[in-house]
Amino acid sequence: MTFLALSTSVHRYESSGIHTGMWLGEFTHFYDALTGAGHEVTLASVDGGAVPIDPVSLKTPVIQMGGTNKRYEDPEFMALLDDTPAIGEVNLAAFDGIYLIGGHGTMFDFPTEPVARAVAHFADAGKIVSAVCHGPCGLLGVPLASGETLLHGRRATGYSWTEEKLANRTDEVPFSLEDKLRAEAGEYTKAKVPMTKHVVVDGKLITCQNPMSATGVGEAVVELLRA
């Protein structure tokens, strides 16, 4: 099976200019879970080209990364981030599902038409749609062929406002993802303790709350691919 992973292309916050981007561990842990089970993962980004990495994701302690991030020191692996295809140029039919990688950059370019079109393609085809942390920004307002939006009546999770406060990013982000998910989804849940693993599986929709959940979403995807 071949899975499509999607990254943000945004490398700075609009308000301050502080660097942001993809949260690297949320890609590496998912990648390891799927490739370890014999599946392939192709990385794309919203605009194409080099993928920006949130520098905080390289400094966060191991316990918050969700595991040791040895991939950053692997040149062959990191080359995957050097020149990615733009999501609008990807042959979506070639993939068995999509994974929306988190990172604060997603809050600016995931709630856009090219991402919504890609996500809808997989949902309408009955394929797996998965997202972690801020990745669910790409699930907001996605229109389906049925006339409903993707999250209507569905169970979901995503980065909580409490976690946003802990990350000291409440003044940088354009909205509260928790509030958006509560308004759109049938049910939003979160871990009792912030920054701990929380994975929600609703059919072929898999959402996870934070970086500590990245391996969990990979494991959940592997289970669905076995079905």
From TrEMBL:
Q: Which Gene3D superfamilies match?
A: 3.40.50.880
Q: Which InterPro entries match?
A: Class_I_gatase-like, DJ-1/PfpI, Prot/Nucl_acid_deglycase
Q: Which UniProt keywords apply?
A: Lyase, Stress response
Protein's UniProt keywords contain Lyase = yes
Q: Locate the DJ-1/PfpI domain: which residues?
A: 25-223
Organism of provenance: Corynebacterium jeddahense
Q: Which family does it belong to?
A: Belongs to the peptidase C56 family. HSP31-like subfamily.
Q: Does the keyword Lyase apply?
A: yes
Protein name listed in UniProt: Chaperone protein HchA
Q: Which SUPFAM superfamilies match?
A: Class I glutamine amidotransferase-like
State one Pfam family annotation. DJ-1_PfpI
Q: Which domain of life is it from?
A: Bacteria
